[in-house]
Design brief:
Elements: H1 13-21, H2 28-37, H3 48-64, E1 68-75, E2 83-84, H4 98-103, H5 105-113, E3 116-123, E4 127-135, H6 137-147, E5 151-156, E6 159-167, H7 174-189, E7 201-202
Antiparallel strand pairs: 1-2, 1-3, 3-7, 4-6, 5-6
Helix pairs in contact: 1-2, 2-5
């Protein structure tokens, strides 16, 4: 970004991607990164890899069914700061609807290829989204049967996340009670260090 490159010397990512895609399996990782970096280019929204991302988001967001989402780009690279995509310079915050998140998938794919993991926080005045993190495979069925999570997703090999949708009440210590619930569930089934009911998880 900081270099002045003559227009005719700018790499055509489309042609590079075609060349890499015709190579052997050793190029598959590079192909995926080039595709993600190029996701915001004209016409990319109709490509199969982009359609797959849209379908995945549709499945995840339909399960969560929140009116709005916070999007956080979590850095995987030392020296690169994580940031809230909707945070404005004046301190205000833009939350995104399901449809607005879908329109940003190309941008989010590029951010992912640049070293950021994409995290969501559902925001809803009527529900808490309780996260149980790092559930082992031997406990996942118990969590499903006992708490009926709205979403279960794999976070890594033999690790799962469950999102439980819980109605909010007007109790004066509602937030404190919800935080205690998160701690107790994670102590029993997931990550004992996990705390806080308003918590992001992977898109």
């Amino acid at each position: 970004e900081s270099r002045n490159i003559e227009p005719e010397k700018i790499i055509d990512l489309e042609s590079v991607h075609r060349d890499i895609s015709s190579g052997n399996n050793a190029w598959s990782g590079v192909s995926a990164v080039v595709s993600d970096l190029n996701a915001t280019s004209a016409g990319s929204q109709l490509k199969p890899d982009h359609q797959a991302k849209i379908r995945a988001w549709d499945a995840q967001s339909s399960a969560l069914n929140a009116p709005a989402y916070r999007i956080t780009c979590m850095s995987r690279i030392d020296g690169k700061a994580s940031f809230n995509l909707g945070k404005n310079k004046d301190g205000s915050e833009k939350l995104f609807t399901k449809q607005e998140v879908e329109k940003k998938i190309g941008e989010l794919r590029a951010k992912n290829a640049q070293g950021y993991d994409i995290y969501l926080t559902p925001m809803d005045e009527n529900y808490h989204y309780v996260v149980i993190d790092d559930i082992k495979s031997e406990n996942i069925q118990t969590v499903k049967e006992k708490y009926q999570p709205c979403l279960v997703q794999s976070s890594s090999d033999d690790n799962f996340q469950a999102i439980i949708k819980v109605s909010k009440s007007d109790h004066k210590e509602e937030q404190k009670i919800a935080n205690k619930l998160v701690v107790k569930l994670n102590e029993r089934f997931g990550d004992p260090k996990f705390s806080g009911v308003v918590h992001p998880f992977r898109m």
